[in-house]
Amino acid sequence: LSTGEVLKNLNKFYKRKEIQRLGADNGLDARLFHQAFISFRKYIMESSSVSADLHIILNDICCGAGKVCLLGHVDDLFPFFLRHAKQIFPMLDCMDDLRKISDLRLPPNWYPDARAIQRKIIFHAGPTNSGKTYHAIQRFLSAKSGIYCGPLKLLAHEIFQKSNDANVPCDLVTGEERVYANEDARQAPHIACTIEMCSTNTPYEVAVIDEIQMIRDPARGWAWTRALLGLCAQEIHVCGEAAAIDLVTELMYTTGEEVEVRNYERLTPLTVLDYALESLDNLQPGDCIVCFSKNDIYSVSRQIEARGLECAVIYGSLPPGTKLEQAKKFNDPNDPCKILVATDAIGMGLNLCIRRIIFNSILKPTINEKGEKEIDTITTSQALQIAGRAGRYGSSFKQGEVTTMHHDDLVQLKEILNEPVRPVKAAGLHPTAEQIEMFAYHLPDATLSNLIDIFVSLSQVDGLYFVCNIDDFKFLADMIQHIPLNLRSRYVFCTAPLNRKEPFVCTTLLKFARQFSRNEPLTFDWLCRHTKWPLAVPKNIKELVHLEAVHDVFDLYLWLSYRFMDMFPDAVLVRDIQKKLDDIIQAGVCNITKLIRASQSAAAPGAAEVVSQDFPLSRTKRDTRAVSERYGARSTEALSIAVGVPGDRRAKNLKAYRAATRQEDLKSHGHGSLANRLLREGLLTQEMLRQLESEWQDQHRNGRYSLGSKRDDQNSSKEMGKKKK
């Protein structure tokens, strides 16, 4: 057979619409059809021999091509193609069963206990600081039994404390912790928990679901859907943005339950100022600067303390205890710390006495539906959530104010705040362990990552739902695939809450899984050796970041200890050293400015590693270089803003970068030499200055100039020429 003729006819077979339709009828969607054809073509073209019946068909097709009376037709290849496809995609033989398992069109039917009772749904709708959650909690406290479901450990802990302070026995349940109100470890009638930990089997009189708008979250939305549809409570009190009212009403319509809506207005006025801060010299007590990257947090806090002001620092990866201590420090009227620098972590979970919110930038890294990181302006919902923290009801500030660091951002912020909040369109879903186990029964040789892929590709959802992003799950599944674990244990390890961008935490999970597979308990001594406990107070930012990672490792151990108690037996001891580590991290954060200086004076690679905590190192270097070449790296603050938002393609954001750089240049003009300004702000030491001077003199003596120097000289010559003309 002529390989050229065979290849031409195979490609003709692939392009025929009739063949594609036949493939779809047999369970091959466009993606699977393409993959199956590539494999089928490779099998035919690279095999030294094929089966006799396939050879005859190919011969008839090639010999009959172009003749009036055809010996064969390319469509005759379909039975052989389908047989090959079933070999590489075994699920094609049991496609009907798999489609039934992955049918997600009726989630309310997954919770028969909740469907057996008639629940009353009350939606408390309103902006931040409107008292909506307060009213729901009052009903929770007055009930004979109740459950509070919140998005954060801090919120669950706050309700746990409030309940017990009000003489209402309440237990605390999070992924890593169980705290009983009763000394004999008897379960209390009230429970405060993180939303993933709520029970859909226990009956309650009242349930409170906080921050219901997070039902659209691409990663965690499934937990709100599960709580809303599955909680067995006579009354379900839902708290959140009014944007979620329509979706909740539609979801409850499918369960035959009505929704009562109670609207709330903000309790204190919030004013958007007509002027930007422009300079950190204009800071006042009660101000909170909001940044969207850890790099900006470091930069801004250093510049504030360089002005002789003390500031508290709060960002997402800090332990809860450290966040509370920093909040307490900022709120204390007798503490000299009157400025707060924070990420959007302050948007919920912390009670703060903020007078004015200042957005350092309105650009924020986000994760899109494909799991890719993008840079975009903050949404109206995010802006309102953060701005609403100013002027909290009951605090010393009776009115809240909001502005931006730069004037260009202020115009855009006003537009964002004036836009209506986009309605929540769909609720998240996630495949359960039981569904994956049923898939594995039909596909025993498939990996967990492949099972998840097949499940998502076959899943059917109606317009009210979407399948949550599973990239983190697949990442962990691929990472531990080579370790021999049963499917249920493997699934649990893959649902562990960790940041996959922290290498130390990921390698620790790998070691946990490996030792677990050997049936060797992970003891306290083993964990201390692995983390090199005891640890010292950090001397620079790199060490502080490592301590945060170690804290996450302790969290991971505690999380696994509640799922595999016999294999992770030392939860009590680990919790004790985690509290000590929290104190060590607090000491580091209190001296964060000194840590930043130490990091900068040590070595440039250390600084690069700090930046890479938020963004990949290669990307950070590329973006830093691009910003330096385009706008000039004359301002550390402007550069840090640019580095904090890599990959930005939008013209208005580039305009903001340029404006920030120009403003810094204008401010620095006339305030002494550049060297003096860098020394004054702590960006340069005398030793570094002497070293730079020595290197510059060596270059001049050797006649070597950098490209930048030549370019500057050429630009200067051109300018002189223009002036002469």
TrEMBL record:
Q: Which CDD domains does the annotation name?
A: DEXQc_Suv3, SF2_C_suv3
Q: Which reaction does it catalyse?
A: ATP + H2O = ADP + phosphate + H(+)
The UniProt annotation puts the region (Disordered) at 694-725
Where it sits in the cell: the answer is: Mitochondrion
Q: For this protein, what is the EC number? A: 3.6.4.13
**Which SMART domains does the record match to this protein?**
HELICc (SM00490)
The answer, when asked if Mitochondrion is one of the entry's keywords, is yes
Q: Where is the composition biased (Basic and acidic residues)?
A: 709-725
What keywords tag this UniProt record? ATP-binding, Helicase, Hydrolase, Mitochondrion, Nucleotide-binding, Transit peptide
Query: What is the enzyme's class at the highest EC level?
Result: hydrolase
Q: Where is the Helicase C-terminal domain?
A: 272-437
Required co-factors: Mg(2+); Mn(2+)
Q: Got a GO cellular component term for this one? A: mitochondrial degradosome
Tell me the domain of life: Eukaryota
Q: Which GO terms describe its biological process?
A: mitochondrial RNA 3'-end processing
InterPro entries listed in its UniProt record: DEXQc_SUV3, Helicase_C-like, P-loop_NTPase, RNA-DNA_Helicase, SUV3_C, Suv3_C_1, Suv3_DEXQc, Suv3_N
Q: State the family it belongs to.
A: Belongs to the helicase family.
Q: What is this protein called?
A: ATP-dependent RNA helicase SUPV3L1, mitochondrial
